Each structure stands twice: as C-alpha cells, then as structure tokens.
Amino acid sequence: MTLRFHKNIYGSKALHKAISAYSEFADITMTKKGDYFLVDIEPHDKEQGLEVVFEFQNFALGESISGRFEV
Amino acid sequence: MDNQTAVRLNIKKKIYPKEVVMMAAYVFLDRCYVFIDQPDKDHFLVELRPKSKVEGDLAGEFENQLIMNSLRLKIVRDTKMVRDMIFARAIGQSMPKKEERGVLPNLPPEVARLLESTDEDMDYNEDPLGIAIPWEEKFGKKGGESDS
C-alpha cells in the first residue's frame, strides 16, 4: 500500500520518526515525488494491517504538528 | 477497530491557515485517525475516521476547533510584542544590581574578589583558587606511602 503525504503538512523528520517507530509492525520505505512523500507500507499482520496504517498516519501527523508548534 | 465512515472537510487556506488546521487536527488524534492533504494550492482536505463509535457531530466539532484555534493564533500574534517585553523585563529585574553584587555575606575573600571582578579583568588561563592543580601535585605523596 502506498501512502501520499504532502510536504507542506508532513515533515520529513516526522515521517522518518514514524517509520522508525513502526518498523517492527510493517515493512516501510519512503521516496519523494513532486510535492509528496510516498510511503510504501506492508504490515506484517494482515488482519491488523489497516489499523497499523492508520496509526502510522496519526503518528506522522502528531510528530509533524509537535515538531512545528509547541502544543 | 470499528469500520466507521470517514468525515471529509474541504477547508479554504485563505480562511484557515495551515497552523490553524494542524492545531485543530491535533485535538482529534486520540479518538480519530486524521489525515490532511493539500489537493490544490487553495485548499486543505481533512479526513477524520473515528476509532470507535461516533457520538456527536465530528465535522461540527472540527469546525469549532478551527474557529477556536484561529482566535488563539490571532491572540498569540497580537500579543507577541507585549509578551516579549514582559518577559525581558522580568528577566532583567531578577538580575542583581551591580552595586549589590559585592554584598554577599560569609564568603572567603578570594571568592568575593572573583565575584566582584568583571569579565574584562579575567583571563581564562588564570587559576586564582588553584582548582586546575592536580591533587597529587598540591598535596604530594611522601616517599614510601601506599594507597591502601
């Protein structure tokens, strides 16, 4: 599954942190294309796959926000 | 995880800037899966997918958060100069005045003299209290003494 994260909203450092945090739950790689970071994510547990993807997105967003603003 | 339908909001950047959208989104991270995209240069697209059964109107709540955070951002920007001045004054007033610095009771004379001296008087190579002198050199072992 490929996720697209817009560079104006999601930071590169935040995404790397998320990849590091979720590496034990999924195989994750990241590339860039235009205004987006493209993240390929393959959860190890197929039954909980969607949950892992959504939690990964939340983590990345949370890190992007707290990295930019003091919340 | 319940399969809840996602709520999507199309937000104009001109009305709610990125900081406001992100601060509003942060509030929902504990109970929703939140995804933000920028489909074009004038809009943000926010997708809220509840983690469990929805109670209430998610879209309405998010819109309320946008307004609250817009106000918060406005107040932060409008008061920045005043806050910086208050902070600088508070820090400045907590520093002892120059004439009060020498009035410190019960200090060894060499310490009091050091505190009174200014940065221009001091050279980092000087060691008036002998702190850099190794212990052995200062109190040197006598011949034949062991460590135990």
Number of strands of chain A: 3
Class by SSE composition of chain B: alpha+beta
Strand order of the largest sheet of chain B: 1-3-2
* Largest pleated sheet of chain A: 3 strands, antiparallel
Element order of chain B: H for helix, E for strand: EHEEHHHH
Mean pLDDT of chain B: 82
Largest sheet geometry of chain B: 3 strands, antiparallel
How would you characterize this protein structure?
- The complex is a heterodimer of chains A (71) and B (148).
- Chain A is built from 2 helices and 3 strands; from the N terminus they run E-H-E-E-H.
- Chain A has helices at 12-22, 49-68, and strands at residues 2-6, 26-33, 36-43.
- The termini of chain A are far apart.
- The model of chain A has no long low-confidence stretch (mean pLDDT 90).
- Chain B has 148 residues and is an alpha+beta fold.
- Chain B contains 5 helices and 3 strands, in the order βαββαααα.
- Chain B has helices at 18-27, 58-78, 80-94, 109-116, 135-139; strands spanning 7-12, 32-40, 43-50.
- In chain B, strand 2 and strand 3 form a beta hairpin.
- In chain B, helix 1 crosses helix 2.
- The radius of gyration of chain B is 31 Å and the shape is elongated.
- The mean pLDDT of chain B is 82.
- Chains A and B meet through helix 2 of A and helix 1 and strand 2 of B.
Topology:
The complex is a heterodimer of chains A (71) and B (148).
Chain A: E1 2-6, H1 12-22, E2 26-33, E3 36-43, H2 49-68
Antiparallel strand pairs in A: 1-3, 2-3
Helix pairs in contact in A: 1-2
Chain B: E1 7-12, H1 18-27, E2 32-40, E3 43-50, H2 58-78, H3 80-94, H4 109-116, H5 135-139
Antiparallel strand pairs in B: 1-3, 2-3
Compact overview of the structure:
The complex is a heterodimer of chains A (71) and B (148). Chain A has 71 residues and is of the alpha+beta class.
